[in-house]
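Record type: monomer structure entry
Structure origin: computed from sequence
Chain ID: A
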Amino acid sequence: MRHLERVSGKAMKIIAAALVMLLAGVGYAAYKLNACFSDRPAACARCHDEEKRAWSQSAHRAVPCGECHQFSIAERVGHSFGRKTASVGDTWQHCATCHWEKNGAYAAAPIVKLSGFHAKHVTAERIACVRCHGSVIHRFLPEERFCTKCHEGRVVHGTGMEKLACINCHSDRTAHLTPDREKCLYCHGEESVRKKLIAEGSLDVKYFRPSPEVVRKAIKIKTAADAPMQFPCYVCHKPHAKIRSGYGTCLSCHKDRPQAGAHALHMTKAGMNCITCHKPHLWKVTKAQGHGLRSAP
C-alpha cells in the first residue's frame, strides 16, 4: 500500500506539472496568437469586421491595431479566448506617443502640443482624446458641432451660421479660443483675409472650411483703418444670444453718452438711437451725414 501511495503521489506531481506546462503552453500560444492579431488588422477583422472597415477609411489606416489597443498579458490571453477587453479608453497616453512628440515610425502624424485647444482640454482639464476624436469608432475628425456634447445649450443664432463648425469661430489663434476679428472676416470680409487664413493652414479651414455659398451669402463688412472700435466682433455681436447688436449694446460701454453734448437732444428728446448717426463699423459721424439728418423730414 505504501508503495502504491508513493507511486500515486509521484503520478499526481507529474500530472500536476504536465497540467501547469499545458496551461502555460496554451497561454503562451494564445498570447503569441493575439500578438499576431494585433499586428495584422486582417486577422482582427475576422471578429471585428465593422471596426476594420471604419479603420481602413480613417487617418490611422497604416497603424496596426495593437499600437492603440494595448492590453496586459492577462487581457491579451483572455481576449484570445473571446473575453471582452477595454478599448483605448479614457486615456491620452497612447495618442501622445505619436501626436505629442515626433514619432519616427509615424512622422506624418500631426503634433498638437502647441495647440491652444489641446492645451486647454488635454493638458489643463485632462479630457481624454477619444471624447472628441473617435467618439464614433475610428472616426478621428470630430463632427462640426462636437463641442456641444460638453458645452450644452450653446445654440448659434444668425442666418447661415447655424451649421458652421464650432472652430470656425472659436479660434486656436487666440489664448482663450475666442474668435478674433480675422476669423469673423473670413466670411464677412474680403478675399485677402480668406487667402491669409487658408495659407496658415489652421484647423478650421483645413478640415471645416466654410463653403463658397456660405461665404457668398455672408454680409460683407468694411471697417475703416482708423475706426475707433478695433476690438473683437463678439464684444457687440453675441452669436450664442443675439447676433445683431441693439441700442442697449452701445450703452453697456458708453453709459454716459445719453447725457453728453448733442446726445441729450437726439437720444432723450428726439428718440433717436445710436446707429441713426453712428453707422456700424464706421462710427464717426461725417458732415454729410449730419446735413442729411438735418434735412430729413
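Annotation 1: The mean pLDDT is 79.
Annotation 2: Residues 144-241 form one domain.
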